[in-house]
Design a protein that fits this description.
The protein contains eleven helices and 17 strands. By secondary structure, it is α+β, with helices and mostly antiparallel strands.
């Protein structure tokens, strides 16, 4: 993997154990599938046939079914380069996130955005394409923050590289990050370089019995102080607060905050990250982005709140137009987080820019046609 003779990085097949709570295959089938993928895109372009680009299929429930021939990237798998001393890992798009997390753990490092693994099936390319981050996102950064470079196939069957593998390399930086959250509509991701971070020395989770509004006020106030927060979640009148950092810093913060230490806390945060908690197994679910201190929209339903109030999940039987209007009135954005017949909207202020970018990358509208709502 590494090119320097002195490097002693772990290899991609060093996975002899299992990560808690997810299914992990212990051997990665390494394969560079670039040629097949490029030829498939070229054939589709020639016939003007749409392609349904998909990784390992863990997030197909998000949004409508995409028409077109399936083009899967799961076989385009394995490591390209891992440099622990430079805090950078580069892997092919089909590489399972579980394998990457396991490899990073051997060097006491982690993916800062903590993406959902979804039963161990999530891939690196899928994490970037969907732009989903886990509970620690406000404190460690989003997927977009961590992307350093990408390699992709555009809508003219060209293999292009943007960005780099080090933080100081800024050439093409913005173009690489455009792939984050594009849901495969701009190109077929082949390879991604990601910034990683050292794991914290220690983590503990404190729980508090608080109602929804008191919990929101508490976490907003704590967010303005020098407290080593790394995750918050309020559900069923219980506030969970995770602290991450040094031994001394965690001990001091825990004494100041009070609360009760939650045993086996890693399981709680893993199930929250992967949407495996009972809250997410019910019916219709909405993902709502709001300013942290914003009040709750006047909508009947059940709430789960994380990211210190910035991300709120809603279970409600209210009509979609009622939910969207209530959230918009508070300066927020509501997205259905389930299989829907209508594609997720591109925000109106960004729509014209997205359309220009789409035309530049995919002029014949080959990739994941209808995956995002592009109507003016």
């Amino acid at each position: 993997m590494c090119t320097t003779a002195s490097c002693h990085c772990p290899t991609w097949n060093d996975f002899s154990g299992l990560l808690p709570g997810i299914r992990v295959v212990t051997q990665i089938h390494e394969r560079d599938d670039t040629q097949r993928l490029r030829e498939s895109v070229a054939a589709a372009v020639a016939k003007r046939q749409p392609l349904a680009v998909c990784g390992r299929g863990s997030k197909t429930f998000l949004g409508p079914v995409v028409a077109g021939n399936m083009l899967g990237t799961a076989e385009h798998c394995g490591g390209v380069d891992y440099r622990p001393d430079e805090l950078v890992i580069t892997a092919r798009a089909g590489t399972p996130l579980a394998h990457i997390k396991r490899l990073l753990a051997t060097q006491s490092q982690m993916l800062p955005f903590d993406p959902p693994l979804f039963r161990g099936e999530g891939s690196l390319g899928g994490a970037v394409a969907a732009g989903l981050s886990g509970p620690q996102r406000p404190w460690f950064g989003s997927v977009r923050d961590a992307v350093l470079g990408v390699r992709l196939i555009n809508g003219q069957a060209e293999v292009l590289t943007f960005g780099g593998q080090v933080m100081k390399n800024v050439a093409g930086y913005d173009v690489a990050r455009l792939m984050t959250g594009a849901f495969g509509t701009l190109g077929v991701l082949l390879q991604v370089s990601i910034k990683v971070l050292p794991q914290p020395q220690r983590e503990i989770t404190l729980v508090f019995d608080l109602d929804r509004d008191d919990a929101l006020a508490r976490v907003v106030a704590w967010g303005r102080q020098s407290i080593p927060l790394s995750a918050t979640c309020h559900v069923d009148n219980t506030l969970h607060v995770r602290l991450s950092g040094t031994e001394q810093g965690i001990s001091s913060a825990a004494r100041a905050l009070g609360g009760t230490v939650l045993p086996h806390a890693a399981t709680f945060w893993d199930t929250l990250r992967d949407h495996a908690q009972p809250f997410f197994t019910e019916a219709l679910c909405w993902r709502i982005a709001l300013p942290s201190a914003a009040p709750f929209p006047r909508v009947a339903g059940r709430w789960l709140v994380e990211w210190a109030g910035a991300q709120r999940w809603l279970r409600s039987e209210e009509p979609p137009e009622v939910i969207v209007a209530a959230v918009t009135a508070l300066g927020g954005f509501a997205t259905p987080f389930h299989r829907v017949a209508v594609a997720p909207r591109v925000e109106s202020g960004l729509l014209k820019y997205y359309q220009r970018i789409k035309t530049a990358f995919d002029p014949h509208d080959i990739f994941n046609r209808g995956r995002l709502w592009m109507d003016a």
